[in-house]
Amino acid sequence: MAKGFSKKDLVLLGPGLAALALGAVLQLPHVHVPHDVALGMRWLGVVLLAAFAVQRRSLTPWIFVAMVAGAELGFDAPHFAVGLRVFSDIFLRLIKTIVAPLILATLVVGIAGHGDLKSVGRMGIKALVYFEVVTTLALGIGLLAINITRAGVGLSMSAATKAVQVVSAPPPTHWDDFLLHVFPENIAKSIAEGQILQVAVFAVFFGIALATLSEAKRGPVLRLCESLSEVMFRFTNVVMYFAPIGVGAAMAYTVGNMGLGVLVNLGKLLLTLYGALAMFGVLVLLPAAMLFKVPIANFIAAVAEPATIAFATATSEAALPRAMEQMEALGVPRRIVAFVIPAGYSFNLDGSTLYLAVASIFVAQAAGISMSIGQQLLMMVTLVLTSKGVAGVPRATLVVLLATASTFHLPVEPIFVILGIDALMDMARTMVNVVGNCLASVVVAKWEGVFGTELLDEVVLEGIEA
């Protein structure tokens, strides 16, 4: 981690983290130290980290410091912190204005600009094969983890009764509903509603149609899309200056609204999920990166910022523009970035898929229902079909979980218990979704043999150096 850090950076970073850790220890109930001492120690750590961020002159350290400061503010002044949610919402709204035009423009240019429709089809098949293999492994790891820890066994159901009216169970989602939903009926409506997959499907057909025209008729539209793409990347660079404020406000609201005590409540389930996600990273993502000779150190550095944004906001969509920019800067051609990452939002939900495997069996365990391996596998297949397209929406997996419970006649009360810690679980699974999709774009580029073959756009370069 210290690679590229100066001695002055380490002088600020080390003591800052140490002060935070010491302040947290002093806050423990059995430690008899005045509250103000622990409080002062933690805020000293925040100040030292902020000084470190100033020295680094990069957005990524500022986003990290904002997360820490937001969590501290949420703990110390929860009522004030909850009111900061508006700044998080502003950041999310700005990001949402970028996503659809960016995907539309970059995907059309990627398909029509090169004119090789066979390569587009080949790229799509490779991406879908990779998605299916990785998400299946995610399901398997989640299923194994929850069957080992048996976190739902013996859960008291009394805590669920207070939340029964919070969410109503939706009707079950069938595969034909999802298939129909993939295709847009009105592109303006799809853009307005943020239906990323529908926008991507429209862009693919539009790009194919554009590629079949003569150069005289294709040129003006192609140049328009190229200009729009450049503008949206520039727009992303401007909006990202607001990212530390938005991320800090999101973290402050989460901690202020729920309290750090939520880490204790249902801790076994939380640890099961975090442990399973860590196993997925080590046993699936890392070997995949090594198999395709991905430059791992450079990839981690590139994905750090979008992953941090995804973790703090619990919304994959908030990280999408920056993720696309960073992967292009890493060496993935724009046409692959524009195709694979948006497609991954519906077909490569590694973190969400793993979470659904853990949570669905947790519900059965909490209800005292014994499910055979065959029944569990059938539930996993159902989850694969019903979980498509939920990565861009905070906590939308909860709705999928309710639909699955309805399909398999499971009680909904254990799901309402999960509401208490769902925000913390959502942050981790969303981060894994983003990292998995970024890695998928690099893998497909490596598989196609085009990684690092295109010159970096100066607008993208400007954004990653900000």
TrEMBL record:
Main localization category: membrane
Subcellular location: Cell membrane
Keyword presence, Glycoprotein: no
UniProt cross-references to InterPro entries, sorted A to Z: Na-dicarboxylate_symporter, Na-dicarboxylate_symporter_CS, Na:dicarbo_symporter_sf
GO molecular function term, any single one: symporter activity
Topology class, membrane: Multi-pass membrane protein
Residues that span the membrane, as ranges: 37-54, 61-82, 94-115, 127-148, 196-214, 235-253, 273-292, 354-378, 398-421
One Gene Ontology term, aspect cellular component: plasma membrane
GO biological process, one term: dicarboxylic acid transport
Superkingdom in the source lineage: Bacteria
Keywords: Cell membrane, Membrane, Symport, Transmembrane, Transmembrane helix, Transport
UniProt name for this protein: Sodium:dicarboxylate symporter
